[in-house]
């Protein structure tokens, strides 16, 4: 697997709807061969708008996209045979059966896998004779996936592939995605499930309001987030009685009732020194909770900052 080769290159990408609303505002990233890159984001962050440009479904309003060295929109014929696309809405005919749907797609796909193989891969073999309209939401997602991987694509785009699946279906899809990746398929995944990105992605980006708010490997993104320590202040104690917070590597704190919440990028030092202090003072830190930074923390911080910014903007508009 040569991950030095960039299969996808996105530079300062922009997408404007209706001549005024900029849904994608200067997004840049690259994806190496065989990598799984996940795009996460708050609702309306611009994930689908970005991925559609990579799939060549629309031209960018600005910037550049290269997929396998070509412009996916103007050179669609060169790119399309090598990519697989699983959209949020497959748009299948509800009257066709599962097998007929796959056969129809196979007819438009060069070098398609045998229908049985595609259905077996997504766990739909026993539903082959069922009409699409009778499938559950999760089964429809599996059919979408079967069609996306029919042509053994070099690059696979998965737009929220596990939405609507139960826990077992989700695990099975993850297993399949891992297998595809192991055989060298490059995957771009959009998802709302943080554990999906954490478990599958080599690298990820969290989009917010059309821009990349944070990017890196899951470990890098997680490590950049503060860890948290919270506990109840012992009776008769005040925050000022604790050792100076800055000396513990605490970067922020807040109180809620008697509970104090601390943020730190040096979890081990902060936790050790607090416990030593409590031991010496002979007090118990009730409800002590120590939590490492997580992808969820990164995501929530971005969403929180976003809502604070939009509240401030609304306030400014009210005052004006
Ligand atoms: N065809 C369109 N015309 C106008 N605005 C659009 C259009 N498609 C999307 N938008 C807007 O662009 C923004 C980004 O939408 P997009 O679907 O790309 O976000 P997303 O990150 O995929 O969201 P979600 O997680 O909710 O699917 C949203 O504000 C959306 O309302």
Q: Could you characterize the architecture of this molecule?
A:
- By secondary structure, this protein is an alpha/beta fold.
- The protein has two domains: about 210 residues, P-loop containing nucleotide triphosphate hydrolases (Rossmann fold, 3-Layer(aba) Sandwich), CATH 3.40.50; about 70 residues, Alpha-Beta Plaits (2-Layer Sandwich).
- Helices cover about 35% and strands about 25% of the residues.
- It contains ten helices and 13 strands.
- The strands form three sheets. A six-stranded mixed sheet has the order 5-6-7-3-8-9, sandwiched between helices. Strands 11-12-10-13 form a four-stranded antiparallel sheet. The protein has a three-stranded antiparallel sheet with strand order 2-1-4, covered by helices on one side.
- Helix 3 packs across helix 4.
- It is elongated and about 75 Å long.
- The N and C termini lie far apart (about 55 Å).
- Adenosine-5'-triphosphate binds next to strand 2 and helix 1.
- GO terms for molecular function: ATP binding; ATP hydrolysis activity.
- This is ABC transporter ATP-binding protein.
- It is found in: Cell membrane.
